[in-house]
Amino acid sequence: MSKEREKAILEKLLKNKRVTVKDLARELYISEPSVRRDLMSLEKQNLIKRVHGGAVLEESALSKTRIPFIVRELEESGGKLLIAKQAAELVKDGNVVFLDASTSAYNVIDFLADKKGITVVTNGVKALLKLAEYGINTISTGGALVSSCLALVGEEAYKTVESINADVAFFSCRGVSDDGALTDISPEENYIRIKMIKNSASAYALLTADKWGKKYYHNLCKIRDIDGVICEDKIVK
């Protein structure tokens, strides 16, 4: 039950950036001491920073743990499903598909279940489990595990991606700037994405509206370097 409350608190922080103990106690129907215990747990996980009377969600604090998967799953989940459906429509029977470890790419899997004879190559641990549930032919990149975002990275992962020619690659990142630069805060994940883009016949970024107009320190590529950006309502080329 406490984990469910923690997710609820994170969801509120993602929307409001700051919460108070009093408001959380009222909205979650729990006592203020229970709220404080939940906030202490979240702070220990490096997800929030407690302040007087409540807590804040800071991008700089989250970057230290590469934006934990639990948080990324909560961000714009509805928009990600719309994007995932559009992405899956680009996959043909028999295709080889690259998926990175992002939650946006993970959501595509649900829409691939009816595709015949496809092979998915991914460095996402959660994606591997979901693909196994659907019985989709899957290749793991292998590599070192980044536990906070459940991504496989490193030399072994790079070599696996380099050895495979895919028909299409789907990936995400933290932001796309006004001048069309796709950027992130995780160089290790970006290196995997770069190799996926290079070794696929077509590549698409999956980006929700909240990521536009944002720029982070590590460059991935430019929009002109890929085949398009899939948004909630269209594909930008």
Structural commentary:
With 237 residues, the chain is an alpha/beta fold. The chain has two domains: 2-64, Arc Repressor Mutant, subunit A (Orthogonal Bundle); 72-236, Rossmann fold (3-Layer(aba) Sandwich), CATH 3.40.50. Helices cover 40% and strands 24% of the residues. The protein contains ten helices and 15 strands. The strands form four sheets. A seven-stranded mixed beta sheet has the order 6-5-4-9-12-14-15, with helices on both faces. Strands 1-3-2 form a three-stranded antiparallel beta sheet. The chain has a three-stranded antiparallel beta sheet with strand order 10-11-13, covered by helices on one side. The longest helix is centred in the N-terminal third of the chain and has 15 residues, at 2-16. The model has no long low-confidence stretch (mean pLDDT 90).
